[in-house]
Design brief:
This protein is α+β, with helices and mostly antiparallel strands and 218 residues long. The chain contains four helices and ten strands, in the order ααββββββββββαα. It has a four-stranded antiparallel sheet, with no helix packed on it.
């Protein structure tokens, strides 16, 4: 009872987000309500950097079914999305929140109920990085399924040195593998010729050895 009165008093004095201990049944109910919250994203083509150049990996993230008593918190930046946390670049309508404040990379977005400090739900979101080196001539002829750094979108930021080292290593390893494969293919396709050549070589060696022995005997 004291906890309930304490929470009510906090609310009355103007604290819109009140953290009180939740019962297990509360948490289970909140989880059911929050199960419909979902997130999607698209590239924001309007973002530019300080020099006026387009930023290719800026995003607009949309949360749907985010009801008034709930909010989402980015565990990396601490940015919150919800009724009581409308920043510049965020809009809200019919329990749908649109924001430009979620940065690229792998994210863990925790869903909270306003009256509870327990994480109700965790949404994993991966906003890929734009790879400015994907068109580099070093990627010509490279299998992009095997070399992720030759793809337009990747899961981490890389320097040109990291890009160069990984792609160069792949090419060297591939060349070694191709050389060995070529030798194997040659033997597969020409094994009769190889066997005949070996036999002829053995006959010549034996014949030469026998002639030398005969000369020594004479």
């Amino acid at each position: 009872m004291k906890k309930i009165l304490f929470c009510i008093s906090l609310f009355v004095f103007g604290l819109s987000t009140v953290y009180c201990d939740c019962t297990d049944s509360d948490v289970e109910q909140y989880k059911k309500e929050a199960s419909s919250i979902n997130v999607s994203y698209k590239i924001n083509k309007d973002i530019v950097d300080a020099f006026g150049d387009r930023v290719y990996d800026g995003y607009v993230v949309t949360f749907k079914n985010l009801y008034d008593n709930y909010y989402v918190e980015d565990s990396d930046t601490g940015i919150r999305i919800g009724k009581d946390y409308l920043y510049e670049g965020q809009t809200a309508e019919n329990n749908t929140y649109v924001t430009e404040n979620i940065t690229k990379g792998a994210k863990k977005l925790n869903v909270y109920h306003n009256g509870c400090s327990t994480v109700i739900k965790t949404i994993e979101l991966n906003l890929p990085y734009y790879n400015q080196y994907y068109n580099d001539e070093l990627c010509d002829g490279v299998d992009k399924d095997k070399v992720k750094l030759c793809n337009k979108w990747i899961d981490k930021a890389v320097t040109y040195g990291e890009f160069y080292n990984e792609v160069s290593k792949y090419k060297k390893d591939t060349e070694k593998g191709n050389f060995a494969d070529n030798i194997v293919d040659f033997f597969k396709n020409n094994y009769i010729t190889v066997i005949v050549a070996v036999l002829i070589f053995i006959i010549i060696v034996v014949f030469t050895s026998v002639r030398k022995k005969k000369r020594l005997v004479v």
